[in-house]
Amino acid sequence: MDGELLIVGLNHKTAPVEVRERFALNEGDLSGNTLLAGEDVSECLILSTCNRVEILAVGRPETAPERLLEAWAGVRAETPDRLRPYTYTHKGREAVRHVFSVAASLDSLVPGEPQILGQLKDAYKKALEGGTTGQILNHLLHKAFFAAKRVRSETGIASSAVSVSYAAVELAKRIFEDMGKTRALLVGAGEMAELAATHLVNAGIASLKITNRTQERAAHLAGRFRAEAVPFEDLARHLAEVDIIISSTGSPEPIIRETDLRGLMQKRKNKPMFFIDIAVPRDVEPAVNAIDNVYLYDIDDLREVVEENLLHRRSEAVRGQEIVDGETLAFCSWMRSLVLQPTIVDLVRRGEKIAGRELEKTLKRLGPLPDGACDALKVMLSSVVKKLNHEPITYLKKACADHPEAKLRHIGTVRRIFNLDNEKQDEYSKEGPEKS
Amino acid sequence: MDYENLLFVCVAFLYSLGAFGILMGTLAMRRPLSAAAEILTLAGFALHSLSLLLAFVTVGYADLSANQHLQFLAWCIIACYLAARYKLRHPFLGMTAAPLALLLYILSLRLTGLKNLLPDNLSALFFSLHVWSLYLSFAIMALAFGAGLLFIYTENRIKNKEPLAGFTRDMPALGAYDKINKGAVIAGFPLFTLGLMAGIVWAPAAQTVAANPKAMLSLFIWLLYALLFYQRTALGYRGKKTALMAVIIFSVSALSLMIDFATFHHSYRFLPD
C-alpha cells in the first residue's frame, strides 16, 4: 500500500453557496493526473456537485491533504488559507465511513435523494478513464456502491416523496391501484400544478385533460404534455370522466362545490376521485372530503405530508448509518489485510519453491514412476506446505488485528524467522526482480 | 406418535412460524422475514394437503371427523390466501388469513373423536356440496375481511390527512383492497347460496332441525350477503361501505361457525375409534 485513504472536501454543511460556487471543480479545471504528479498522492478521484466538492485520495497522511488543498485553491487562483476554513479532512476509517455515507445519500441535504449516487458513479468513471484510481479506490468505490444499494433496499430512506408535487402523485398511488387506468384533469396552470402533472404523466396515467380560463394557455400546455385541452365552461362535464383533479386557478371563490359533487359521484358509480387543490384561495370546498370515495388534499395538507416524509427519511437514515458502519468495518479489515499481503505471498511462494526443489531431487532419485504417482506426490507436498504455512499466517492476521499499532513488528518477526528478505535478495541476484 | 399426530404437529408448527413471520415481517416492513414465513406456510400447506389426502383415502370424505372438517376449513383459507397472494404479489392478506387458519387448525384438537352421523344415501352429494361451498365462501370472505380491515384503516388515515407511517407505507393502494372485496362478493355469494340451498335440502334428510336459531343466523348472513352483492353489482357501491359490510358478514359467519362446531348443530357425536 502506498499510503492512507483520505478526503479533503467541502459541502453544504461547511460552506455557504457562494463559497461552493467559487471552489466548484468543473470538468477540466483540475485533472487527477495533476494531483498524482508529486510523490504525496498515489490515487485520486474528484467529486464535484452543487452541494459538495470532495477529493478522495490515497497518499501520505502528513503531506497529501495540504498538497490537495494547494492544487484545489490554485485552480481558482486562491491560497489554501482562503479555502481551508470551509473544508474538512477525513483520514482512514473516517474517510471510508464518509464516502459510504455520501454514496448512500445519508450526508445529503435531503437524505435519500438519488442523484448523488449517479454523480459519484460519473466521477468514478472519469477517474477510471483518466487512470487515476488504483487498488484501494477501486475497491472503496465498489464497496460504496454496494453499501448505497443496501441502504436503499433495506431501509425506507428513499420511499417517500419530499416535494409537494411528487407527494401528491405518491398519494394518488395509494388510492388508485393501477395508475395506467386513471385519467387526470389539470384545472388552471400554476407552476406547481404543472410539476404535479409532469409527475402524473411520468407515473403512466391513461390520459390528461387541461382546462384554463385562457384557452390558449390550456392549448399550449396540452401540447407540452400531449394532453387534451378542454373549455373551462365544460368543467362539470369533464369532472365526471376523470379520477385525479389538480386545481390551481386564481378564482376567489371555490369552483368545485360539495353539492355538485354528490350528484356526480352517483353518476360515476362511486368511483374514487382525488382532488389536489394547490390554489390559494382554495378551488375546492373542504366539505368535499366528507363524501365517500372522494379524497381532497390542499397545499397545507401536502406540505404536512412532505414534512412527515422528511422526518421519516431522517429516522431511516439512522438505520442506514448502521449499515454503513458495518460496511466500513469490513472495508477497514480489508485495508489491514493489504499490509499483510506481500508477506503472506512471500511465505506461500517460499514454501512452494522449497517443495518444488525437493520434489525435483526426489523424482530424479526414484526414476520412472507408475501413472499418477507423480501427481499424488505433488498434491501431498502442496498440502504439507499449506498446513505448515497456516500457523504463521493465522498468527500474523490475529496479531495485526489485535495490535494494529505493532503490525510492522509482527510482520518483521515473521519475515526474519522465515528469512523472507534474504530469500528475495537471493532470487534477485539469481533471476532479477520478480514481475507481479 | 403415529403419522397423523406427527403430521398435525408439523403442520401446526409450520403454520405458527408462518403466521408469526408474516405478521411481524409485514408490520415491521421486513420483506425477507415475510418471504421466509410464506415459504414456511407453503411447506405447512403441502403437509396439510398430504394429511387431508390421506384422510380422504383412508376414511372417505363423508366419514371425516369434526376435527378433520375444521382442518379442511383451515386448508381452504390457506388455499384461497395462496391463490390471492400469487395474483396480487403481496403477502398482506396473510396477516389475517394465516393466523385465522392456524387458530382453526389448533381448535380442531378440541373436536377429536367427534363424527358426523349421516345417512349414507344422501351424505355424498348434498353434505359434500353444503360443506365445500360454505367452506370456500367462508375462506373467500376471510380474505375480504382482511382486505376490509386494511381498507378502513388506510382510508381513515388518508381522509384524515394522517401520515401513512409504519407498515402502511408498504401496503397496496385502496383500489387493490376494493378489488379483493368485489371478487370475494362475486365469487363468495353464489357459493354461499349454493351451500345454504344444499343444506336446506340435506337438513331434513339428516334429521336436524332446520328452523333452529343457527339456521336463522345462516339466513341472516345470506340476507346481508345478498344486500352486499346487490350493492356491488347493481348499485355500484364500493369503498368503505362495502369493506365494512364484508367485515360484518365475516364476523357473523365466524360466530355462526363457532356455534356450528360448539353445539354439534350437525349431529356430531363421540364415536369410538
List the helices and strands and how they pair.
The complex is a heterodimer of chains A (436) and B (273).
Chain A: E1 4-11, H1 17-22, H2 32-35, E2 41-48, E3 52-59, H3 64-75, H4 80-83, E4 88-91, H5 92-103, H6 115-130, H7 135-154, H8 164-175, E5 183-187, H9 191-202, E6 207-211, H10 215-225, E7 228-229, H11 235-239, E8 244-247, H12 258-267, E9 273-277, E10 294-298, H13 299-366, H14 373-402, H15 407-417, H16 420-431
Parallel strand pairs in A: 5-6, 5-8, 6-7, 8-9, 9-10
Antiparallel strand pairs in A: 1-3, 1-4, 2-3
Helix pairs in contact in A: 5-7, 5-13, 7-13, 8-9, 8-13, 13-14, 14-15
Chain B: H1 3-27, H2 31-59, H3 66-88, H4 94-107, E1 114-116, H5 120-159, H6 174-205, H7 213-233, H8 240-262, E2 268-270
Antiparallel strand pairs in B: 1-2
Helix pairs in contact in B: 1-2, 1-4, 2-3, 3-4, 3-5, 4-5, 5-6, 5-8, 6-7, 7-8
What does this entry look like structurally?
The complex is a heterodimer of chains A (436) and B (273). Chain A has 436 residues and is of the alpha/beta class. Chain A is 56% helix and 12% strand. Chain A is elongated. Chain B is 76% helix and 2% strand. Chain B is built from 8 helices and 2 strands, in the order ααααβααααβ. Chain B has helices at residues 3-27, 31-59, 66-88, 94-107, 120-159, 174-205, 213-233, 240-262; strands spanning 114-116, 268-270. The longest helix of chain B has 40 residues, at 120-159. Chain B is flat, with a radius of gyration of 19 Å. Classes of the chains: A alpha/beta (436), B mainly alpha (273). The A-B interface holds A 156, 159-160, 171, 173-178, 269-272, 289, 292-293, 295, 297, 301, 304-305, 308-309, 312 and B 29, 154, 158-159, 161, 163-165, 169, 172-176, 178-179, 235-241.
